Amino acid sequence: MSFLKRAGAAVFWVAVACVAAVCLAAIATSRGEQINSIWLVLAAACSYLIGYRFYAKFLAARVMALNDERATPAERLENGHDFVPTNKWIAFGHHFAAIAGPGPLVGPVLAAQFGFLPGTLWIIAGAVFGGAVQDFVILFASMRRDGKTLGQMAREEIGKVGGLVALVTVLLIMIILLAVVALVVVNALAGSPWGVFTIGATMPVALLMGLYLRYWRPGKVLECSAVGFALVIGAVFGGQWVSHSAYAPAFTMTAMGVAIAIIIYGFFASALPVWLLLAPRDYLSTFVKLGVIGMLAIGILAIRPELQMPAFTRFVDGTGPVFAGKIFPFCFITIACGAVSGFHALISSGTTPKMIARESHAVSIGYGSMLLESFVAIMAMIAACVVDPGVYFAVNAPAGIVGTTAQAAVKTISSWGFPVTADQMASLARNVGEVTLFNRTGGAPSLALGMAHIFARGGGGDAVLAFWYHFAIMFEALFILTIVDAGTRVGRFMLQDLLGHAWKPLARTSWMPGVIGTSLVIVAAWGYFLIQGVRDPLGGINSLWPLFGIANQLLAAVALSVATTIILKMHGPKFMWITCAPLAWLVLVTFSAGWQKIFSPLPRVGFLAQAAQLAASASSSQTNALVFNARLDAAVCGTFMILVTVVLVDSLRLWYGILRGTQRAVVIESPFVLSRLEVKEI
Amino acid sequence: MKLLRNLLAILREIGDQNAYARYLQAHGVVHSGEQWRRFSDERFRAKYQRAKCC
Fold first, then answer.
1. Which of A205, A386, A395, A494 sits in a 20 to 30 Å window from A431, CA-based?
2. A93 vs B10, B17, B40: nearest CB
């Protein structure tokens, strides 16, 4: 490279670093005045650019020694099905679509109760130094091992226990995940005839799409999805009509009613043929998700809204109404996806490593996709923080904390220093076509409000607020329900796989009694936690979201243990810090959070204290159920911690042996084969 | 133009249309309803045995 080009590049990267530093300093030091969202966008984007250009490239060159002359599994094992050398950007899009779920949208909205600053800094730093590193290293490791899964790598690199623990942890996380995301939908749809009609209408739309794709226009997925999209937009308008018609009461459901409907739906979606309901919904929801994320990015850049939420709120002390617990460790487990998500390790060791044509593509696909997901989390944080803080807390605080009447709620919330009036809330509810927006916990309604606010400012103002609010609810519910039905099916397969060791017929996915029985078990498991969340006087999210965050981050700890073992075997202790540092942080965060969730003496934080407080009150069947649920949550949390402790101890024992020289450090990679792929082929 | 082409290619990949084209090529067969059903049954069976991300 010529001197001028190098000097130009140096000036450019120094400028990017300066912009990142200035923007981070600006958002970190702003107090008592509103700040424009563009500061967050620039701080995040420039930090990601620096992380990608320098840290990811360092990892690729020095640690992984990516080599484009080495044939990837996609080339060596090409079979036209899953092993296919794929264009870098196509594989990037595929991987991003697979990792982007509701987590990076909901987590930041809930964490906004601490103010915009803690969550934003964690999203940026967590992704650059933790999440993207985890995704990248696991993708690399799987790619060098013929596309092996995280469980297989854990078993081979750490030991048999690691592999089994990874499998059981994933199954347990799935159950909590399905319950918590279903609860988000329940809280968004309860008491909303518009929302219930719209989401209800997506079921026949999906069935129609299934038939369309199977029999009328086979293989025309994009065309079929375009038709489906037009129909669900029609359903959003239809929902508006229904909400003003005599049919409104028929579509006005209680939280329990919506929960039961979702449980029944989950069972049928899991047992029905995939092509009929699940697959067409999945296509549609993926396209809608990518489209809406793109629209939100354009909206934020075009509108550049001011953040109404302060940098910090008083709730950093742990007394927050959205969920209880101090900023450390709870901010860091509330935002899992978007910063570090263990679930990504399953995708990075699933389909993606089988698609990569050149080893160097893993940088943009593994590291880059996570940065983009992190940017989605930043956008969600912005969407939550453009809403007036009084409104944010009125929407996200459960009735058990702020009171059951509008007057009680606004009085409590205003006394916290976030003024809001009953008239303001009533007017806002009218503008978005809802009866009330009080106590709509779970994050989805406040995210929808923020998104509607941004989209409506793009044109139409208050007149189109209702459409955009329900469009956002439709978008959130559509892909959350796709996760519920796909997750139930996956959970069923996992259970069949596990039970098949005890009795072989149970492992057969074509044996109907086995399919129905295991589907029922999985639906009953997550359905139980969902019902528990609905009945919880503190709103359910207070218990379930931290449990999900702890579980997801513990899975990340398993993935980072595998990654550290592989790096240690490759280079000795020299580069261990790369994965050890985020691993140590996650262990500290998750074990602190887990310990507090079980043993904190504060009933809103500790499950056992909550159980003791409830047990001391008047005994009734409902109270007894709540006591049992609190103890069950404590047991689930403890189980997660024990499982991961087993993997950690196993890993530490191995690392100690390698460092002492008593264990051999054998790198188990597939052999080097020279790549023969030509540029035009990829 | 290249950006749009790439975007469309990503959508086709996500929508399994690229995979279907590869399937037809690999098996030396032409598109038909029966071939799509055979391909999609196999594709969905593998796809929905994997955990979906949160």
1. A205
2. B10
The partner residue sitting opposite A343, judged by closest CB among B15, B16, B54, is B54
Task: Give the separation between CA A635 and CA A637, rounded to whole angstroms.
Answer: 5
Q: Could you list the residue range(s) of the whole structural domain that residue B24 is in?
A: 2-47
User: What DSSP state is assigned to residue A2?
Assistant: -
Nearest to A175 by CA among A640, A652, A651: A640
Q: Residue A232 domain-assigned?
A: no
Interface of B with A (CB under 8 A): 6, 9-20, 22-23, 25-27, 31-33, 35-37, 39-54
pLDDT digits 0-9 by tens, A126-138: 999 999 999 999 9
Chain A residues with CB-CB distance to B51 below 8 A = 170, 174, 343, 346, 350, 487, 490
Q: Model confidence at A315, in pLDDT bands (50, 70, 90)?
A: very high
Mean predicted confidence (pLDDT) in A191-217: 95
User: Is A274–B36 a contact, with Cβ atoms under 8 angstroms apart?
Assistant: no
ipTM attached to this prediction: 0.96
At A609 the pLDDT is 97
What's the domain count of chain B?
A: 1
Determine, for residues A287 and B14 on separate chains, whether the beta-carbon distance falls below 8 Å.
Answer: yes
Tell me the pLDDT tens digit for each residue of A47-65.
999 999 999 999 999 999 9
What residues make up the domain containing A623?
A: 3-190+253-305+328-398+439-660
Which tens digit of pLDDT belongs to each residue from A393-444? 999 999 999 999 999 999 999 999 999 999 999 999 999 999 999 999 999 9
Q: What residues of chain B lie within 8 A of the CB of A101, using their CB?
A: 52-54
Give the residue on B whose Cα is nearest the Cα of A343: B53
User: For B40, which residue in chain A has the nearest alpha carbon?
Assistant: A275
Chain A CB contacts of B26 below 8 Å: 79-81
β-strands A306-307, A35-36: how paired?
antiparallel
Which stretches of A13-161 are assigned E, i.e. beta strand? 35-36
Over 70: is that where the pLDDT of A607 sits? yes
If you measure CA to CA, which chain B residue comes closest to A282?
A: B15
Contact A80 B25 (CB under 8 A): yes
Report how many domains make up chain A.
1
Q: Do A93 and B45 touch (CB under 8 A)?
A: no
Q: Cα separation of A475 and A279, whole Å?
A: 17
Q: What letters, b where the CB count within 10 A reaches 16 and e where it falls short, cover A468-484? A: bbbbbbbbbbbbbbbbb
Residue A616 lies in a domain: yes
Chain A positions touching B29 (Cβ under 8 A) are none
Average pLDDT, stretch A26-31? 91
Q: Is residue A268 part of a domain?
A: yes
Q: Judge whether residue B52 has pLDDT over 80.
A: no
A280-315 in b/e burial notation, b at 16+ Cβ within 10 A? bbbbbbbbbbbebbebbbebbeebebebbbbbebeb
- Tell me the average pLDDT across A559-588: 96
